[in-house]
Amino acid sequence: MLTTMKTLRVNRRAFMRRGATGFALFAAGGIKAQAIGMNSGDAAQKNTELLAAIARLSELGPLLPPDENGLRLPAGFRSRIVARSGVAPSKNSEVVWHRAPDGGAVFPSADGGWIYASNSELRDAAGGVRALRFDANGEIVDCYSILENTTSNCAGGATPWGTWLSCEEHEQGLVFECDPQKAGNGEARPLLGRFEHEAVAVDLANDQLYLTEDQRDGGFYRFTATRGLPDLSAGQLEIASVVQRGDRQYIEWLAVPDPLASATATRHQVAGYQAFRGGEGIAYHDGSVYFTTKRDNRVWCYEIESSELRVIYDIKTSSDPVLAGVDNVTVTPRGDVLVAEDGGDMQLVVLLPSEDGEQFDAVPLLQVVGHDASEITGPAFDPSYTRLYFSSQRGAEGANEFGVTFEISRV
User: Fold this and answer.
1) One-character DSSP codes across 101-130
2) What is the DSSP string of 319-333?
3) d(CA 100, CA 83)
4) Degrees (nearest 5) of the Cα angle 110, 114, 119?
5) Contact by Cβ (8 Å): 388, 379
6) Longest alpha-carbon distance in the chain
7) Over its length of 411 residues, how does the chain's per-residue pLDDT go in tens digits?
8) CATH value at residue 91
9) Interacting residues of 316 by C-beta distance below 8 A, sequence separation 6+
10) Can you give the pTM of this predicted structure?
11) What is the rounded distance in angstroms from the CA atom of residue 278 to the CA atom of residue 242?
């Protein structure tokens, strides 16, 4: 563990309650802030400094013409390619970057650097997860495998205790917990269910995980850890049922009798569950869970305390439907929801909440040009929020062996 669970819970709640660090990628300088492990006085001062310097994503301005890497970015930003499928990204390792890079997350390392963990969405036990290690100056110093011989590792989720949950996207798929800090192999967490997993998000305060299922009639799941997180060896898996109360919708949770689906698919074990049309990315932020469904191009928000479920983006009703092919999701500490496009216009789009939080405006943050048969995957920020990582899964050539992983930073 990176820290004790008690300290982590206290610091995380304080971090979120104060509005967090904001989006330091858009600060004038590279001010670093680490929520976990920072005492409350230091964190409050750091938050004040950052929020005074940081612009909202809506203030970035229009995208410029493509740069030398084929990326359209706002003025003042640059890109670099940090890894290509089939090529060793580090001189210190012969391990090559995997094909079909998909979901990813960044983890701080003890030396002041960080690690970008990335899934490989290959079939027939050819998938897994590889890690790209950066030093404190942002230079690549190592590449290694943290999970091997798994199938269709699509998205997943980072945990507050410093592990990566990698999700298999097939009917018998499992979730594997991996240590990104060193080479090795992950451990299956079967009680999280055996189904076509897409992604997972962690609600540490309530000892719960939320999971999406990539099926036409997929479920939205919740796992409650009996002995508290990070222990995933005991707990209850539930599936969402939606009830209407007036003009609002609320979730009621129903137990899944057999999470391992030994005879019947998990979602079909429970009468009255709510079918979602192709669950995709998911992320937790400040008491809310955001997730996407690809077949109806919607972004949802589940408010944990009230159990209310809302649609915050719908391509059919949006006044400016710039977001299509919704997929991976990440949320900035300030609450801006970033959604990657699977196809569409190959954009990473930010959904900006209004003051009341009821309406969200869609604004393109970047666009990959010339990768029309690919998808944007694995958006994640470094611990200082001064760098953004993501991949084009199939590159300009449109094939798994041509995946490209990018880094975005200020000029």
Assistant:
1) EEEEEEEE-TTS-EEEEEEE--STT-EEEE
2) SS----SEEEEEE-T
3) 12
4) 125
5) yes
6) 61
7) 333 343 344 333 332 332 333 345 544 343 333 333 334 344 445 454 444 434 456 677 899 999 999 999 999 999 999 999 999 999 999 999 999 999 999 999 999 999 999 999 999 999 999 999 999 999 999 999 999 999 999 999 999 999 999 999 999 999 999 999 999 999 999 999 999 999 999 999 999 999 999 999 999 999 999 999 999 999 999 999 999 999 999 999 999 999 999 999 999 999 999 999 999 999 999 999 999 999 999 999 999 999 999 999 999 988 888 999 999 999 988 788 999 999 889 999 999 876 666 668 888 999 999 999 999 999 999 999 899 999 999 999 999 999 999 999 999
8) 2.120.10.30
9) 296, 297
10) 0.89
11) 16
The whole-angstrom separation of Cα 362 and Cα 360 is: 7
Strands (DSSP E) contained in 22-163 are: 71-72, 77-84, 101-108, 114-120, 127-134, 140-150, 153-158
DSSP 3-state of 361: strand
User: Could you tell me if 51 and 71 lie in one domain?
Assistant: no
Q: Give the Å distances, CA to CA, from 252 to 43, 222, 239, 274, 304.
A: 36, 11, 8, 10, 11
Residue 247 shares a structural domain with residue 362: yes
CB of 132 within 8 A of CB of 118? yes
Would you say 264 and 258 are in contact if contact means Cβ atoms under 8 Å apart? yes
Domain region containing 38: 1-55
Residues 96 and 120 reside in one and the same domain: yes
Beta bridge partners of 176: 166, 188
Q: Are residues 92 and 182 in the same domain?
A: yes
Mark whether 347 and 223 lie in a shared domain. Answer: yes
Write down which residue in 36, 55, 74 finishes a domain: 55
**Whether residue 219 is found in the same domain as residue 158:** yes
Nearest to 24 by CA among 59, 50, 4: 50
Instruction: Say which residue the tokens 């915050």 belong to.
Output: 312
